[in-house]
Known about the structure:
The strands form 3 sheets. Strands 2, 3, 4 and 5 form a 4-stranded antiparallel β-sheet that branches. The chain has a 4-stranded antiparallel β-sheet with strand order 9-8-11-10. A 3-stranded parallel β-sheet has the order 1-6-7. By secondary structure, it is an alpha+beta fold. The protein is 36% helix and 24% strand. The two termini are 29 Å apart.
Amino acid sequence: MLHNLSSLGFGSVYGALSGIRMYHIDPAVLRVLRPSGQSSTLLPEGANVASVLRGLAQSHPELADRIQGYLRAIVPGFERIEIRQIAGLGVPYFKMSSGDGKGSTNFPVTNVSDGTLRALAILVALFQAPAPTLQLLEEPETALHPGATGVLLDAMLEASERSQILVTTHSADLLDQKDIPDESILAVVAEDGTTRIGPLDDSERSAIRDHLFTAGELLRTGGLHLAPGDTPNQRAEPA
Length: 239
């Protein structure tokens, strides 16, 4: 279908639709060692993260540096990642400081926590090149400690200058950041087999805009509400 759009002269439509990427990162998939190579596009579960990171380091070193910089802010003790070639496989090694001032230790990807792997894959998704036209990230905060969510949001805001980003989340910690514009937050409610997505109630948008509450604080105190519509004032979880 997309190929037909391109051949009929809808090149821009084809480019936009084929550039959409959806990610649900699975740390177990990231631990599977794969043949060494270079990729420009991250796969939906992050399987080729080592190849994409290796390619970025060669073609866009400034983006690879941003990924590692954000990872240092998220993971205590993290120093850098090195992709080693072992028996034809690309094996990411994480250099971590020992914490006692006596040096560093290198951990293979198989020995790294779920949270660290998810953070890496999400950052690679955000800063991959070429940038997707639209990225959909499913609950990127999963397995991260609450203090890391603010750093993750900073990365998403920076990456949004290159690509449109849509995030689904249940995390009040992620929504606690005052830098999120009220118009960027949509609420979702499912009822009787129908899903509604839309802007927040005007009073809640005003509270966020005036910095009286963050969206996270509103969520903790009873949820967020859709603006009045077919079924007004329904409680919802944020998207």
